[in-house]
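Please produce the structure of this protein holding zinc ion.
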Amino acid sequence: MRSFRRLNAPHAAGQRAIRTFVCTNPKCEVHHYGEPPVQCYCGGIEFLRFDSKTESQHWAQLRTLEKRGRIKNLRRQIPFALYAVGPEGQKIKVTTYIADFVWDDLDGHQHVGDSKPEAGVDDLAALKLRIMEAQGDRVELLTGRFATDHIDA
Ligand SMILES: [Zn+2]
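Below is the modeled complex.
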């Protein structure tokens, strides 16, 4: 079981939390920072909302891999139920982990990625990631400017 480097100052990450709106036009996908735009330069009016610039940058990197055909079926904000074992051995849903990104590699294996601005996680995130791993879904931590070669595609 992995251990995770903990963030001592949970609010430090928030300083970089600049909302980002990514144009959904596949030929554009320009990032707009801060306030939600009314209209994109391309004329598009639909946007994906990201809570941080880091997360939107990770999305852009994964989208590049998807467009190059190295990964497929990229999606975001995917819920996973987290279970505990009850006294009778039954599965009990305790909470939900929302994955930032889920994609499939070319062998059809599912990957789960969690976007973090720092090389560390807070206590709640660490707990959820450990339960995910115990359930057989190892979450890949995407931090800072992760190299796309790092993705096992
Ligand atoms: Zn656009």
